[in-house]
Inverse folding.
């Protein structure tokens, strides 16, 4: 894989709560330089990123209901709508984890569908974050099925703020469940090396969320 091919898999990410505007602007400059697929930032920074990346191949990704997924459907919809208006073309939404664990499938599906509808109307792509480290295999399968039915475009392993990050096993399960329906898998959380990257791609991930993208590219170059 060339550096340009590798970079096209990466959502260049800074989501830590203490992130500053200066750090986000540096993220955008790196994304332009290395041609990452997107920058993934908190909603406050979407408009500035869209300004900085205008005319480039780098898209703007943001998060909704982050990092817990326990906000109301109405607030997720409002957050998504504002992000799309500000220039985000990819939305990574945390599903209602407690509702999934409790078996409230119709409500979880409705929550996803409401955000997916905003994305569809706004020309954005929705990824649904599961926080797989909190879930059983059966619950991961259920989350995949609900994401398919609700109109999402991607499923994603982790927020990076939960009890664990992406695992090969979770990515394989997710890929198995959604690929036949045209959805793709994003792996995120704890992916810091070229070996981590390769393991996730081999397991079926088609996008990687990481704050270590520059380091991974430099590792590829030796």
């Amino acid at each position: 894989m060339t550096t340009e091919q590798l970079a096209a898999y990466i959502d260049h990410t800074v989501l830590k709560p203490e992130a500053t505007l200066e750090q986000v602007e540096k993220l955008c400059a790196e994304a332009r330089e290395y041609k990452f697929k997107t920058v993934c930032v908190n909603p406050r920074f979407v408009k500035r990123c869209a300004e900085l990346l205008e005319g480039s191949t780098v898209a703007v990704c943001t998060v909704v209901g982050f990092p817990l997924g326990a906000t109301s459907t109405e607030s997720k919809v409002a957050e998504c709508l504002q992000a799309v208006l500000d220039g985000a073309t990819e939305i990574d939404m945390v599903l209602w984890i407690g509702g999934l664990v409790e078996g409230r499938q119709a409500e979880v599906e409705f929550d996803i569908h409401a955000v997916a509808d905003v994305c569809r109307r706004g020309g954005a792509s929705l990824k649904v974050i599961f926080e797989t480290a909190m879930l059983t295999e059966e619950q991961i399968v259920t989350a995949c099925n609900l994401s398919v039915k609700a109109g999402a475009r991607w499923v994603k392993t982790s927020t990076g703020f939960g009890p664990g990050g992406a695992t090969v096993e979770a990515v394989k399960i997710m890929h198995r469940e959604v690929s036949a329906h045209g959805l793709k898998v994003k792996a995120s959380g704890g992916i810091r090396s070229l070996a981590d990257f390769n393991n996730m791609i081999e397991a079926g991930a088609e996008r990687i969320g990481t704050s270590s993208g520059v380091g991974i590219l430099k590792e590829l170059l030796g």
The mean pLDDT is 98. The longest helix spans residues 105-122.
